[in-house]
Amino acid sequence: MSFDILVKGGTLPDGRVADIGIAGGKIMAIEPSIMGEAGETIDASGDLVSAPFVDPHFHMDATLSYGIPRINASGLLLEGIALWGELKPLLTHEAVKSRALDYCDWAVSMGLLAIRTHVDTCDDRLLAVEALLEVKKEVASYIDLQLVAFPQDGLYRDPTARQNTIRALDMGVDVVGGIPHFERTMADGTRSVTDLCEIAAERGLMVDLHCDESDDPHSRHIEQLAYETQRLGLQGRAAGSHCTSMHSMDNYYVSKLLPLIAEADVSIIPNPLINIMLQGRHDSYPKRRGMTRVPEMLKHGIRVGWGQDCVLDPWYSLGTADMLDVAFMGLHVAQMSSPDDMRRCFDMVTNVNAAIMGLENYGLAVGKDASLVVLDAGNPIEAVRLRAERLCVVAKGKVVARREKRDTALSIPGRPAGVNRRHEAS
Ligand SMILES: [Zn+2]
C-alpha cells in the first residue's frame, strides 16, 4: 500500500508503539510495523504521537487585543467585561479577522487543531460574528472552528441581545451561548437558561452557557441547565462553562447537584488559567481558588474537559495557545497528582474536549481525520510536565508545522555536552 505520509515508531498515549499510515486526509492504518511507500516519512521514534489538542472554550473575537484601548487595572472579571465594552465600538472587521488568523497560526504551532470559540452577539453590527464566520471557512482545511453565539452583556440585560443572538444563529453560528449569572437578577438568569435551551432544542443545536462564573455560592444556574437539558432531550449536547460558584457552594447542596448533572449528561468546562487568576478577588485570607469541583465531578462520571478561555485580552494578560499549559494549571489547582489523574488531564485536553465539541472525525483510529501531533516527550505525563515541544503537526493529512528538538548545549567540565529534561521513567 502507498501512503501520503507514514509516521514511524511513535509511542501512542496508551503506550503502544506503532506506525501510522495516512492517505487522502485520513488515517488508513495503525500497526506495529507498516511496510509501504510513502510521499513523506516522519521519524517519531521515542516520541509521543497524539491526536491533536482541542480547546472547548475560547474567545477568539477578543484574543490578542491586550492593551487596546488600555489594560485591565484591577484584574477583575467585571472590569474585563467593561473594558471589552470600551473596545467593541473600536473593532473593525479586518482587525478582528487578522488577530483571529494570527491566533490560529499560534494554535497550529501548538498542535491545537479544534477550537470552540464564543463570539459576542451584543453588537447590532454583528461585526465579530461576520469576521469569525469568514475565519472559520478560511481555516477549515486545518482547524475545526466551532462558533458559539454569546450574548456577553446578558440576553435580557442588553436590549437587543436576544434578537442579535438569533440573527447570529441564522447566519450559521453553531452553538447557543449565554451568561445567566450576568443578568440583572437570579430570576432573569434562570429564565435565560430556559429560553436558550429551548432555542437550542428547536434548532437541533448544542448549547454551552457561561454558568455561575462567580464566587457566589447561591449562583446555581447549572442546576437549571441540568434540568432543562433533561426536559428538552439535550443530553450529551449541553455544556456548562466555568461553574466556579460550585467551589463555594454548601457541600450538602453539591451532593444533590452532581448526580443531577451526571443524569442530564451535561459536560463541564473549567478554565483553570483564567479562574485561578479571576476568582477569590473579593476575599482576604483564606482566599478561595474558585475552581469548580473537578475530581468530585469525575467521580460521578461527569464529562469534564479543560478550556483555555483567553489569550492576551481584556481578561487575561498571558497565554500562548498551549493546551498543555491549561492541563498543567488544571492538574495543580484540582490537585490531580496521581499518575492516573495526570494521564487523565492529558486525555481531557485531547479526547474529552473533542467529545464535548461533538467532533466525529477526531481521534487516533483508522478512518478518522489524519490530524496528529508529535511531541518531544515519552508519554502523556511527561508531555504535561515539560509542556513538551510540538515537533511535527499534521492536519487533515498535511504537515502544517515542524520544529527541531531544542536540547540545550552545556559547557560544564565533567558533565555531558547537552541536556534535555526528558525522564523516561515517568
Ligand atoms: Zn469564557
Explain how this protein is built.
By secondary structure, this protein is an alpha/beta fold. Helices cover 34% and strands 22% of the residues. It contains 12 helices and 17 strands. It has helices at 77-87, 93-109, 127-139, 161-170, 186-203, 221-231, 251-264, 272-278, 294-299, 323-333, 339-357, 380-386; strands at residues 2-11, 17-23, 26-31, 37-43, 48-50, 53-58, 112-120, 144-150, 175-178, 206-211, 238-242, 267-269, 372-375, 390-395, 398-402, 408-409, 418-419. The strands form 4 sheets. The protein has a 7-stranded parallel beta sheet. It has a 4-stranded mixed beta sheet with strand order 3-2-1-4, with no helix packed on it. Strands 5-13-14-15 form a 4-stranded antiparallel beta sheet, with no helix packed on it. Bound molecules: zinc ion. Zinc ion binds at residues 57, 59, 118, 210, 241, 309. Zinc ion is lined by residues 57, 59, 118, 210, 241, 309.
**CATH homolog superfamily of the largest domain:** Metal-dependent hydrolases
CATH topology of the largest domain: TIM Barrel
CATH top level class name of the largest domain: Alpha Beta
Spatial order of the strands in the main sheet? 6-7-8-9-10-11-12
Radius of gyration: 22 Å
First and last CA, distance: 36 Å
Q: How much helicity do the residues have?
A: 25-40%
Gist?
The protein is built from twelve helices and 17 strands.
Show the helix and strand layout.
Elements: E1 2-11, E2 17-23, E3 26-31, E4 37-43, E5 48-50, E6 53-58, H1 77-87, H2 93-109, E7 112-120, H3 127-139, E8 144-150, H4 161-170, E9 175-178, H5 186-203, E10 206-211, H6 221-231, E11 238-242, H7 251-264, E12 267-269, H8 272-278, H9 294-299, H10 323-333, H11 339-357, E13 372-375, H12 380-386, E14 390-395, E15 398-402, E16 408-409, E17 418-419
Parallel strand pairs: 1-4, 6-7, 7-8, 8-9, 9-10, 10-11, 11-12
Antiparallel strand pairs: 1-2, 2-3, 5-13, 13-14, 14-15, 16-17
This protein binds zinc ion.
The site of zinc ion (ZN) has 6 residues, from loops.
